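For concreteness, we quote verbatim a single protein encoded this way:
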Amino acid sequence: MAKLGIAHVPEGRGTFAELTVMENLRLGGYTRHGSIRGDIDRVRAYFPWIDERADQQAGTLSGGEQQMLALARAFMQRPRLLLLDEPSLGLAPLVVSEIFRIVKELNEEGMTVLVVEQNANIALQAADEAYVLEVGKVVLSGPSAELREHESVRKSYLGY
């Protein structure tokens, strides 16, 4: 899948806890040929804290830092499609906002991002298109701006 240009950030972060931050990043670039130095520099632009934590074991990071590391590791692959499964799960609102800000930037730079997210409010703010699933079936779909105004979405998922 990685060679096809698909990167996945699983629910629950999925970092390699015993490895350092830098080792996790290097694993993200394992399908890349040649030097990954430029990719690490690009990751640092999004996640400046990585430099000071490069030698720290990933398992000792906060939950938000682990989620950002998982995202950074996926970014190292330079995927055409980034799959994110519940990126806000168990994280503080400020961390969630930062993660979705970065995801939005990646998308604006041309990366296709598919997010599965129960926090409908933040998902609809970040997405261009959205699908509402109920019991595994698509019940609504369309531009996010339209779904934010849809009466049943507002009542059932957005609380107003």
Residues 48 and 149 are 36 Å apart (CA to CA). The chain has eight helices and five strands. Residues 93-108 form the longest helix (16 residues).
